[in-house]
Amino acid sequence: TVDGVWHDWQELAHWGAPGDRRSAPSDSPPIRQGTPRLDTDVLTADGVPFDAVQLRISLAAGDRAALRLVAVSFSAPAASPPADERPLRTGAPTAPPGADAVVPLSQRAHPAREDLGGGGPSWCAPTSLAMVLLAWGADIPRGGPGEASAEADPRVPHLAHAVYDAVYGGTGNWSFNAAVAGELGFDAVVTRLRSLQDAEALTAAGFPLVASISFAEGALPGADYATAGHLLVLRGFDAKGDVQVADPACPPLPSGRGDGLRTYPRAAFDAAWAHSRRTAWLIAPRGRALPPGEDAGVW
Fold first, then answer.
1. Cα separation, 153 vs 254, whole angstroms
2. What pTM does this model have?
3. Are 199 and 280 in contact (CB under 8 A)?
4. Mapping DSSP to helix (H, G, I), strand (E, B) and coil, where does residue 238 land?
5. CATH of the domain at 131
6. Which of 3, 7, 171, 282 is deepest in the core (most CB within 10 A)?
7. Domain interval for residue 256
8. Is residue 70 part of a domain?
9. Residue 4 lies in a domain
């Protein structure tokens, strides 16, 4: 805390083999006054200011895993994000090398199932993760026999197994998705951006983003659904500054891909994104330099 007092250690997660990955146990003891509240993959200091954090990572004996990246994203006290500024560029769409390579996949191509958080209807996270990793040329294993129909991409079930959080009961643990990207040779962080201008700078430099959005029915023109929480790939901007995405909620095509290369109006998309305080996953090949931000540590 700001007065120099450290609270007790809190377990964040256990990371084992697929099937043995879980966030903090649901039967954790009550948290004493002043201790941050843990909600799966987000630690919130309710009403208590903190200015430092310690992380402790314990590797199991004989574990061959190497610790390559530890990242913590800090956010200021919750407040309404500022309105998006004018587009960073006008007159020509961005044509970034990595973001432009995103091929849309549909989570709807995968059926509902009793395990792995409910299957395709809930798999926006592993589907978005697959799209970004494949855009970077990742070699993603395929799911086992019978896990994907001919109309579905078999790499999505593999990622669903890999990111599944047994305590959360789903595939949407953001930190676990970043960790699986790390297992496949990438650097990945969960962050919050200041505006769509930050997203423009990253996608223009070739970095597709996974964005967390929510919106009511009809609030995002062009989307045929409403959602309390959804992930999609932000891949660029058109000449007007509107947002180009690969949306896993799109209907499937016979190829196993989707028709999800959509363009959403800038203001409406920003309003949907602002509900998560503009949370985004930033994934890139290990060691690839990010574009310079106008402020240190902005990404």
1. 11
2. 0.90
3. yes
4. coil
5. 3.90.70.10
6. 171
7. 99-285
8. no
9. no
Query: Cα–Cα distance between 214 and 181 in angstroms, integer?
Result: 24
Q: C-alpha distances in angstroms, 130 versus 5, 60, 239, 246?
A: 42, 28, 27, 11
In a domain, 33, yes or no: no
Q: Is residue 281 part of a domain?
A: yes
Q: Which two tokens stand for residue 221?
A: 């023109």
Beta strands in the chain (DSSP E): 13-15, 21-23, 37-39, 42-44, 186-192, 209-215, 227-237, 243-246, 261-264, 279-285
Count of domains observed in the chain: 1
- Strand blocks (E) in 48-194: 186-192
Burial class (CB in 10 A: 0-12, 13-18, 19+), 165: buried
Question: How many CB atoms are located within 10 Å of the residue 82 CB?
Answer: 10
In a 3-state reduction of DSSP, which class is residue 260? coil
